[in-house]
Amino acid sequence: QTSVGVAQLNWDELRKSIAECRACGLCAQRKQAVPGVGDEQASWLWIGEGPGAEEDARGEPFVGQAGKLLDAMLAAIGLARGDDVYIANAVKCRPPGNRTPETAEMAACFPFLQRQIALIQPKLIVLLGRAAVNSVLGDSGSLAGLRGKTAVYRDGDREIPVVVTYHPAYLLRNLPDKAKAWEDLCRARALMKAVRETQRLG
Ligand code: URA
Fold first, then answer.
1. Which residue in 36, 41, 98, 146 could disulfide with 88, CB within 3.0 to 4.6 Å?
2. Which atom of ligand 1 lies at the shortest distance from residue 60's CA?
3. Pairing between β-strand 150-155 and β-strand 158-165 as defined by DSSP bridges
4. How far apart are the first and last CA of the chain?
Protein backbone atom coordinates (compact mmCIF):
# COMPACT_ATOMS: atom_id res chain seq x y z
CA GLN A 1 0.00 0.00 0.00
CA THR A 2 1.55 3.34 -1.02
CA SER A 3 1.04 6.37 1.21
CA VAL A 4 -1.07 7.94 -1.54
CA GLY A 5 -3.20 4.78 -1.51
CA VAL A 6 -3.52 4.82 2.29
CA ALA A 7 -4.79 8.41 2.14
CA GLN A 8 -7.89 7.17 0.29
CA LEU A 9 -8.88 4.36 2.66
CA ASN A 10 -12.00 4.23 4.79
CA TRP A 11 -11.84 2.81 8.33
CA ASP A 12 -12.45 -0.81 7.37
CA GLU A 13 -9.92 -0.69 4.56
CA LEU A 14 -7.43 1.05 6.82
CA ARG A 15 -7.73 -1.60 9.56
CA LYS A 16 -7.28 -4.34 6.95
CA SER A 17 -4.30 -2.59 5.43
CA ILE A 18 -2.67 -2.21 8.86
CA ALA A 19 -3.35 -5.86 9.73
CA GLU A 20 -1.67 -7.02 6.52
CA CYS A 21 1.14 -4.44 6.40
CA ARG A 22 4.68 -5.61 5.67
CA ALA A 23 6.25 -2.19 5.14
CA CYS A 24 8.90 -2.66 7.85
CA GLY A 25 10.56 -5.46 9.77
CA LEU A 26 8.22 -5.23 12.77
CA CYS A 27 5.65 -7.38 10.96
CA ALA A 28 7.91 -10.44 11.31
CA GLN A 29 7.40 -10.95 15.03
CA ARG A 30 3.96 -9.50 15.67
CA LYS A 31 1.08 -11.66 16.87
CA GLN A 32 -1.16 -9.00 15.39
CA ALA A 33 -1.05 -5.34 14.45
CA VAL A 34 -2.64 -2.90 16.91
CA PRO A 35 -4.34 -0.18 14.90
CA GLY A 36 -5.89 1.85 17.72
CA VAL A 37 -9.01 1.98 19.80
CA GLY A 38 -11.86 4.33 20.56
CA ASP A 39 -14.30 6.78 19.16
CA GLU A 40 -13.65 7.25 15.45
CA GLN A 41 -14.99 10.79 15.67
CA ALA A 42 -13.21 11.66 18.90
CA SER A 43 -12.32 15.22 19.85
CA TRP A 44 -9.26 13.84 21.63
CA LEU A 45 -6.51 11.80 19.97
CA TRP A 46 -3.81 10.36 22.25
CA ILE A 47 -0.74 8.89 20.57
CA GLY A 48 1.80 6.60 22.22
CA GLU A 49 4.87 4.79 20.99
CA GLY A 50 4.01 1.24 20.00
CA PRO A 51 2.38 -1.93 21.31
CA GLY A 52 4.03 -3.94 24.08
CA ALA A 53 3.57 -7.64 24.79
CA GLU A 54 0.05 -7.34 26.21
CA GLU A 55 -1.09 -5.05 23.43
CA ASP A 56 0.38 -7.43 20.84
CA ALA A 57 -1.53 -10.30 22.46
CA ARG A 58 -4.84 -8.44 22.77
CA GLY A 59 -4.82 -6.17 19.74
CA GLU A 60 -5.63 -3.07 21.79
CA PRO A 61 -3.26 -0.20 22.69
CA PHE A 62 -2.35 0.63 26.27
CA VAL A 63 -3.82 -2.37 28.06
CA GLY A 64 -0.76 -3.15 30.25
CA GLN A 65 0.71 -1.25 33.21
CA ALA A 66 1.31 1.94 31.22
CA GLY A 67 -2.26 1.67 29.98
CA LYS A 68 -3.59 1.67 33.53
CA LEU A 69 -1.75 4.91 34.16
CA LEU A 70 -3.01 6.33 30.87
CA ASP A 71 -6.58 5.51 31.93
CA ALA A 72 -5.91 7.32 35.23
CA MET A 73 -4.49 10.31 33.33
CA LEU A 74 -7.62 10.42 31.18
CA ALA A 75 -9.87 10.10 34.23
CA ALA A 76 -8.00 12.94 35.95
CA ILE A 77 -9.34 15.34 33.31
CA GLY A 78 -12.77 13.76 33.06
CA LEU A 79 -12.09 11.53 30.06
CA ALA A 80 -12.47 7.82 29.43
CA ARG A 81 -11.12 5.45 26.80
CA GLY A 82 -13.56 5.23 23.92
CA ASP A 83 -15.68 8.17 25.02
CA ASP A 84 -14.76 11.06 22.71
CA VAL A 85 -11.21 9.67 22.94
CA TYR A 86 -9.19 7.69 20.40
CA ILE A 87 -5.89 6.05 21.33
CA ALA A 88 -3.27 5.14 18.73
CA ASN A 89 0.45 4.53 18.50
CA ALA A 90 3.30 5.77 16.33
CA VAL A 91 3.89 2.18 15.20
CA LYS A 92 1.18 -0.44 14.94
CA CYS A 93 3.36 -3.51 15.50
CA ARG A 94 5.32 -4.45 18.60
CA PRO A 95 9.03 -3.65 18.52
CA PRO A 96 10.83 -6.78 19.78
CA GLY A 97 11.72 -6.54 23.47
CA ASN A 98 9.75 -3.26 23.63
CA ARG A 99 12.66 -1.30 22.21
CA THR A 100 11.96 2.21 20.95
CA PRO A 101 10.80 2.08 17.34
CA GLU A 102 13.41 3.23 14.85
CA THR A 103 12.83 6.42 12.88
CA ALA A 104 12.52 4.39 9.67
CA GLU A 105 9.86 2.15 11.28
CA MET A 106 7.88 5.15 12.42
CA ALA A 107 8.21 6.70 8.97
CA ALA A 108 6.96 3.49 7.34
CA CYS A 109 3.95 3.47 9.67
CA PHE A 110 3.22 7.20 9.51
CA PRO A 111 0.79 7.09 6.56
CA PHE A 112 -1.54 4.99 8.73
CA LEU A 113 -1.40 7.49 11.58
CA GLN A 114 -1.83 10.34 9.13
CA ARG A 115 -4.94 8.66 7.71
CA GLN A 116 -6.30 8.02 11.21
CA ILE A 117 -5.92 11.72 12.00
CA ALA A 118 -7.62 12.69 8.72
CA LEU A 119 -10.55 10.34 9.41
CA ILE A 120 -10.97 11.23 13.08
CA GLN A 121 -10.45 14.98 12.64
CA PRO A 122 -9.62 15.42 16.33
CA LYS A 123 -9.82 18.85 17.93
CA LEU A 124 -6.65 18.18 19.92
CA ILE A 125 -3.76 15.70 19.78
CA VAL A 126 -1.80 14.64 22.85
CA LEU A 127 1.60 13.11 22.16
CA LEU A 128 2.88 10.73 24.81
CA GLY A 129 6.66 10.67 24.85
CA ARG A 130 9.47 11.26 22.42
CA ALA A 131 8.67 8.58 19.87
CA ALA A 132 5.21 10.06 19.26
CA VAL A 133 6.75 13.53 19.02
CA ASN A 134 9.35 12.28 16.60
CA SER A 135 6.73 10.58 14.44
CA VAL A 136 4.07 13.28 14.36
CA LEU A 137 6.08 16.50 14.57
CA GLY A 138 9.32 15.21 13.08
CA ASP A 139 11.05 16.72 16.06
CA SER A 140 13.77 14.73 17.76
CA GLY A 141 14.49 17.28 20.50
CA SER A 142 14.14 16.59 24.19
CA LEU A 143 10.69 16.26 25.66
CA ALA A 144 11.51 18.76 28.37
CA GLY A 145 12.06 21.40 25.68
CA LEU A 146 8.76 20.68 23.95
CA ARG A 147 6.45 20.52 26.94
CA GLY A 148 4.52 23.63 27.84
CA LYS A 149 4.24 24.87 24.26
CA THR A 150 1.40 24.14 21.89
CA ALA A 151 2.58 22.67 18.60
CA VAL A 152 0.50 22.35 15.45
CA TYR A 153 -0.22 19.37 13.22
CA ARG A 154 -1.38 20.20 9.70
CA ASP A 155 -3.99 17.95 8.14
CA GLY A 156 -4.55 19.47 4.71
CA ASP A 157 -5.67 23.02 5.45
CA ARG A 158 -6.74 22.20 8.99
CA GLU A 159 -4.48 23.02 11.92
CA ILE A 160 -4.81 20.76 14.94
CA PRO A 161 -3.22 21.87 18.22
CA VAL A 162 -0.79 19.39 19.74
CA VAL A 163 0.16 19.03 23.40
CA VAL A 164 3.26 17.07 24.32
CA THR A 165 3.65 15.21 27.61
CA TYR A 166 5.53 12.34 29.19
CA HIS A 167 4.79 8.76 28.26
CA PRO A 168 3.00 6.90 31.06
CA ALA A 169 5.66 4.14 31.06
CA TYR A 170 8.26 6.86 31.71
CA LEU A 171 6.12 8.31 34.51
CA LEU A 172 5.94 4.90 36.18
CA ARG A 173 9.74 5.01 36.46
CA ASN A 174 10.00 8.74 37.24
CA LEU A 175 7.25 9.51 39.70
CA PRO A 176 8.36 13.10 40.44
CA ASP A 177 7.61 14.05 36.84
CA LYS A 178 3.96 13.15 37.37
CA ALA A 179 3.39 16.70 38.62
CA LYS A 180 4.63 18.05 35.28
CA ALA A 181 2.39 15.64 33.39
CA TRP A 182 -0.50 16.90 35.48
CA GLU A 183 0.32 20.47 34.37
CA ASP A 184 0.32 19.29 30.75
CA LEU A 185 -3.04 17.57 31.16
CA CYS A 186 -4.60 20.67 32.71
CA ARG A 187 -3.23 22.74 29.85
CA ALA A 188 -4.66 20.26 27.33
CA ARG A 189 -8.05 20.43 29.03
CA ALA A 190 -8.01 24.25 28.96
CA LEU A 191 -6.91 24.24 25.33
CA MET A 192 -9.76 21.90 24.38
CA LYS A 193 -12.19 24.23 26.08
CA ALA A 194 -10.79 27.15 24.11
CA VAL A 195 -10.95 25.23 20.82
CA ARG A 196 -14.59 24.26 21.44
CA GLU A 197 -15.42 27.86 22.29
CA THR A 198 -13.77 29.16 19.10
CA GLN A 199 -15.56 26.57 16.98
CA ARG A 200 -18.89 27.41 18.63
CA LEU A 201 -18.44 31.10 17.90
CA GLY A 202 -16.94 30.55 14.43
N1 URA B 1 3.08 1.88 25.33
C2 URA B 1 2.73 2.52 24.20
O3 URA B 1 3.34 3.47 23.78
N4 URA B 1 1.67 2.07 23.54
C5 URA B 1 0.94 1.03 23.95
O6 URA B 1 -0.04 0.71 23.28
C7 URA B 1 1.34 0.39 25.13
C8 URA B 1 2.41 0.83 25.80
1. 36
2. 6
3. antiparallel
4. 38
Q: Report how far ligand 1's centroid is from the alpha carbon of 198 (Å).
A: 32
> What's the Cα-to-Cα distance from 50 to each of 131, 183, 188, rounded to whole Å?
9, 24, 22
**Which residues line the pocket of ligand 1, CB cutoff 6 A?**
48-52, 55, 61-62, 66-67, 89, 169
Mean pLDDT per 10-residue section of the chain, whose length is 202 residues: 86 98 98 98 98 98 98 98 97 96 97 98 98 94 90 96 98 96 98 95 82
DSSP 7-28: TT--HHHHHHHHHH--SSGGGG
CA atoms of 171 and 133, how far apart (whole Å) = 16
Distance 150 CA to ligand 1 centre (A): 23
User: At residue 120, what is the residue type?
Assistant: I
d(CA 144, CA 99): 21
